[in-house]
Amino acid sequence: MVSGWPGEFFRALNAHRVQAPGQESLQLLNLALPGLTRRIRKLGDTHWRVRIQATLDAYTAGSIHTRSPIIGRNVQSHEAVNTTVASVARSLRIRTESLSLAIDNLTDDQVKTRHTANGRSRRLMTPEVIQKVHAVLEDRISIKNAARLLGLSAPRIEQLANAKLLIRQAGRLSKRACNTLQRSLMQVCVHGEAPSEAIRFSDTLRFWIPVSRSSEFFEAVLSGELATYSETGANSIHAMLLARERVMAWASARSDQVIEWLSVPDCATRLGIKQEVAYHLVRVGLLHTRQTMINRRVAQVVTMEALQQFERCYESLSKAAMRAGINWRHGVAWACSNNIKFASGPQIDGGRQYFVHIRSLGRNSGRNADHSMTVMK
User: Fold this and answer.
1) Where are the domains of the chain?
2) Closest C-alpha to 304, from 257, 267, 265, 355
């Protein structure tokens, strides 16, 4: 071994090394070569003790670039390796949490990981890993920055991300995906003379395409369903032109699709009640709403599912009394005499109109109609 130093020593270390258990690719020196450092410290020959320790340091340094690197506090630090996430975060001037999230997105082949006994993860931060993490962080942009990059509004960017036209990770968007989308839109353009009544891409979005249909519109452009035109050399989607008549026909052809939601006033018309009553039902939680964009404004809307749920559970007292043949003026007394449960009303929650639970309306609720009329008289 001495004559073949240090190659023979390296081969001996490889032969006696204990492989990492499971899928872990990172090892501590004391686990990979148990008891070796203790035996080196016990050597009486100072020359050989220093020589073996230096050779062992070279062995661990060389393992950094292998599939099973060796790390640990008992390993001399290498100039090319920064072993702590906190120090790397300081060098990149970012929060440690942001760096950890970026590292989590790397594959096992890109960053070596070891799990400690208490469940923590220890990662090997090589210059290559730091470079990859830096590239990942540089690629992440906020929705506002993506909106500036593409020249679109933030709500439209949100719609494109929800439709998987843009890549979203940990609340951030991929800058590379934004540039790819813009290039894809420019590649489908017809370079040449546009129709006589062509309109700009930005005007198309402004006047004919609501925010809720942004992804559908972009998919139509990418698939060629809506032809786009641009001058040679144009590199912005807002330089694209579309045929006005074609856009109007496309937009109107899809306006007759199934309605997914109604505004609160439209919902009031559907239920045959006043708008103030509908808004009160929303406030007390009987009529559920969600927020959406209408004409570039955030508004409360009632989904068709929520409206149907309300119609299955509640009914205005006036309609229930009328169906039972009771005058609406006597509706409250009729409901009380038939043990009908109130859901909303002036004496319940301050509402302007009484509503009752449909389940409490028995099939024979109108049986005592004549008796109720007699009592009221």
Assistant:
1) 7-71, 85-140, 183-253, 261-311, 315-376
2) 267
